[in-house]
Amino acid sequence: MIPDRLVLATGNPGKVDELRGLVREWGNVAALDLRGFPGVVLPEETAPSYAGNAVAKARAVAEATGFPALADDSGLEVDALAGEPGVRSARWAGPGAGDAERIAKLLGALAGIPESGRTARFRCVVALAWPGGALETAEGRCDGRIAQLPEGRGGFGFDPVFVADDLGCSLGRATSVEKQRISHRARAMRLLGDRLRAS
Predict the structure, then answer these.
(1) Which residues are catalytic, by number?
(2) Range of the domain at 147
(3) pTM here?
(4) What average pLDDT score do residues 5-31 get?
(5) How far does the chain reach from its first CA to its final CA, in angstroms?
(6) Contact 164, 175 (CB under 8 A)
């Protein structure tokens, strides 16, 4: 069942915007910002899987706020790097590193790799947890490749260097509508919505 309100269990402003827009597709659901709950702390992302991290965050926030909580964990998997940075995408470039540093490390790691060897995918798991312990999860992915240089100023994270197969351009150049149509997070959220409606 789709709740009438939920808390977005993330402190990432880019994810808040994307998740709020995707929750709207479920109908009249109020998506509350975690900043409205001072003192609620997200757990560290120490699980070895996207699902483990998403579930831990959703359960912690549901218990702390008393509302259903929606969390996600996502990452970029690059074939030439044996699936790295993967579940460690946000922490891959070290403590305190921002998007620019993460992108620079990625492009440096792929220096000299030709176009054909730069295949990659974004993967996302979303989890919705209720205070009573009920839980539902879903996974989505978006396939593409890593560009030689950043393209566009939109999105966040690795978006400027990820060229989505479904668009033929980087997610940094895509409009928010285009990204919402094909992204890994959007696909996971739509699948989760379908599962909630069916339950």
Answers:
(1) 73
(2) 5-198
(3) 0.92
(4) 94
(5) 6
(6) no
